Amino acid sequence: MARLNQIIAIEKGVKSRSFQELTEAHHSLQKPTLIAGIARTYRPKDEEGEQLPPE
Q1: Domain membership flag for residue 13
Q2: How does pLDDT run across 22-54, given as a tens digit for each residue?
Q3: Domain that holds residue 16
Q4: Domain for residue 1, yes or no?
Q5: What's the domain count of the chain?
Q6: Rg of the chain, C-alpha, whole Å
């Protein structure tokens, strides 16, 4: 059976690692170059569909 201090030590390690990964993901999403080249064009489903401008 695991002791309480062992469980607490493991929990702290897991929390620290997950917070670090979350921080890295947040920082990588803040870089504008990752999403700068995305362009969307719309095609109507049929010939009479609504025409939308590209983004």
Answers
A1: yes
A2: 999 999 888 777 666 777 887 777 777 777 777
A3: 9-34
A4: no
A5: 1
A6: 24
Burial of 45: CB neighbours in 10 Å, binned 0-12, 13-18, 19+ = exposed
> Which two three-digit tokens encode residue 19?
């917070």
51 neighbors 44 (Cβ within 8 angstroms)? yes
pTM value? 0.49
pLDDT at 50: 76
Type of residue at 50: E
Beta-carbon contacts of 40 under 8 Å, excluding residues fewer than 6 positions away, are: 54, 55
Contact (Cβ atoms closer than 8 angstroms) between residue 50 and residue 44? yes
Helix, coil or strand: residue 3? coil
pLDDT at 10: 92
